[in-house]
Amino acid sequence: MKPSFLSLIISFIILIGCNKHSSEKQPETPILKFDLDFTPRKPDSEGYSVSLAPFIDSVSCIKLETGNDFLIKRINWIEQFNDMFYILDKELNQLFVFDTKGRFKFNVGAKGKGPKETLELTDFTIDRKNNLLYTWDNGLRKILIFDARNGEYLSQFKIDGVCRSLLSYGRDTFLVYSAQRPNKGINIDLNHNLFIMTKDYKIINKFLPIDKYMAYISTWQCKFSSYDDLNMIIPIWSNTVYQIKKEECKPRYYLDFGKYNIPLRIFEEYNKEPDLMKVRLESFNKLYKAIRHKYVYFIHNYCETDNFIYFNFYYSRKRFCLLYNKKNKKETNRQYVAIDIDSIKFPIFDFFKAEGDYLVSYAQPGSLNYFKDKISSNSKFKKTFEAASETDNPILFLMHLKK
Fold this sequence. Notes:
By secondary structure, the protein is mostly beta strands. Helix content is 11%, strand content 42%. Strand 14 and strand 15 form a beta hairpin.
């Protein structure tokens, strides 16, 4: 039987996906097929949201302390380390740190161009073995180093290149993702999306060669995620989850959305002069218009545990979430995820992997008003919900995963 066109395309993606210098034969990549449901639903109707109930057995609330000097505007990312939550607010150019009781500990990210300041704080990563906190200043192209335990400034160094996502990979060693933007650094020309580098710009390895028809046509940030001893990322415009372990990068899953997959030919069609950066930038809007109403794009916030896989994506300019059960191989996609609190399905928009068998999410106090009257009087959440003011810091939800 002749191979189908789809299988040829998938094989091509897998072939070019990893380091082009590798001569090792790549194993077959597992394909996760999704039958997406975009049926319009009214709020609070049956099936309006994806329930986390099958995967979690308990939920607790952490009301974050509020103060004029540490008032969060928007949460972009959360990490937990040493009983503290590190919360990135890119709009305020700040990284806020609270303990597990919700008490404010410290913040980093003073605005400016000085030695200890950042112009555009867009990412952070933690070296958990050495208690080091690294923040990435995208405006000044530098990494600042702090003591992760107390926020004390230690040092900084420059990166002469593009970084869209940063992950600590050992002391002063990093995974750097460039998001389809060629890096021209010190005596090097890195036409790759992903590389392992040291703080003195020594390149240990490089992966995922940049496709000439995709270079420069990206605007979104892709974050690394971790599961067991693996680090993972889904590149811009890709349906492939890549895993990085030690000095090896290989496909972990191919996410197949059927008719909603972006055809590879569309990039070549809208970038007919791939060597001209100006043309590429101008063609981005045309490309986006061609994609946004027909295909799934910008797969992000990938999270994997023993029992499930979760990620967000966009379709028809709307953000969706997808929850996949690894045991029964079934998935559900909706615009919201919900956690069950006293038989109430409380919607959340993002969640992140916390320490141990926990997930963490959040709610702005203003969004709790709708639920205050619906919470039973003997609920453990009653006091937290009633004490929340619209001008307070967010409330964290800590969810324990079922075994």
